[in-house]
Amino acid sequence: MGSAAALAGGGLFLLALVLTAARDLSLLVSALALSAEADESWIRISAIGVMALAPAITLVGFFMARRVAPVVTVEVPLANLARELEGFTIAQISDIHVGATIKRDFVEAIVDRVNGLQADMVAITGDVVDGGVPDLARHTEPLARLASRHGTYFVTGNHEYYSGADEWIVELRRLGARVLINEHVVLDHDGASLTVAGVTDWSAHHFDPSQRSDPRAAALGAPEGAPKLLLAHQPRSAFLAEPAGYQLQLSGHTHGGQFWPWNLLVRLQQPFTAGLNRLGRMWVYTSRGTGYWGPPMRFGVPSEITLIRLVGAGRTSQ
After folding, report:
1. What is the pTM of this model?
2. Which of 4, 15, 254, 284 has the lowest CB atom count within 10 Å?
């Protein structure tokens, strides 16, 4: 917790810097629009506002970041969904970022909450760690307890590549996850087929050319007529996934922006920031993340464990 508090101090500094820049802009506007007396009054009020808001927002953001992520339930309507797949559930966790401030107890709490959902499968959409296997294996070990009917599926995020992706792939397999590297599996659910595919991170080829992200290759040989689900760390993989015939992509990476004003800047790099969106014939769900990165702070952008529920398009929810 000590390192978390130290990083929160860095978040306080960053927030104070942003608020001060906003204040400076407001002072420029007030100097042009207000009388000298009113402008002097606003100088005092705005200074007090920055000094009060920065620590208050940091404190609230700290507790929002450090709590166990709440469950967000999302229904995704798919055309021609087999009756046997009606209500099929996927527990998605993403962007935990085990490392300097997120340790074993944090991961254990996430696993307990996921297991309580009794989902049909678990999807981990990348950025589990910020560090190497020797340092963090003890803290990621609780992931071995993840339980669901069809098991746990994992795809790499960019931070796995920063941290030694090949070693983490081996470790995640040891923990019982099926690592999908531009490939798919076909689940048999009460006689109906569901294709679950996964791709490496969008940036993987910069670290290992043999692991270039390829949604089309991941779907090769998938059964005709079965719905196709893609796990892809970054939402922008959707531009390649949609023409490859997927009906749903689950992603993370953005953290929803984590806190203002970064949530406004995410769209400069990614097509979607958070939640359920449509791209052509495909749904894309972007998780806000189950942990956090950098300063332990979330403000206005809560973390989440997502329970995806598949429903037939046009059918009444049960």
Report:
1. 0.84
2. 4
